[in-house]
Amino acid sequence: MENIQVLKLHPAARIPERATASSTGFDLYACIESPIELEESPQLISVGIALSIPFGIDAQIRPRSGLTLKGIMAGYGTIDADYRGELFVTMYLLDNDSPYVVRSGDRIAQLVFNSTPLVNIDLVHSIDDLGSTDRSSGGHGSTGR
Prior knowledge:
3-stranded antiparallel β-sheet, Deoxyuridine 5'-Triphosphate Nucleotidohydrolase, Chain A, 1 helix
């Protein structure tokens, strides 16, 4: 098990937490001075924390399904292991006909951690160098599902 260090940058900030013991995502909470009405254009919402993520761990910000169902999106984001700045979530409305206001303390996104293998990118010079598979270069819809 890896430890993720969390620094509260604002007194009102909440550390990420799982909603249940089996949750894979940790809830992220808005930490803002005053309510923000979301718009169709992206808006950065502060979470009020900074993290120390060990090298080899992938941290992803993901939307919350309950908010997405209401037409409120949190953009996917990656937090690199060498980033130590404040976390923000990019949020926006899919439909301006349903206003939505974000308040400090609201659950706005999820933080999911995964292991990432160390890989190298090697340039090859022909399609044959990639090796063949049953699918090969079949694109979207090529698996028949």
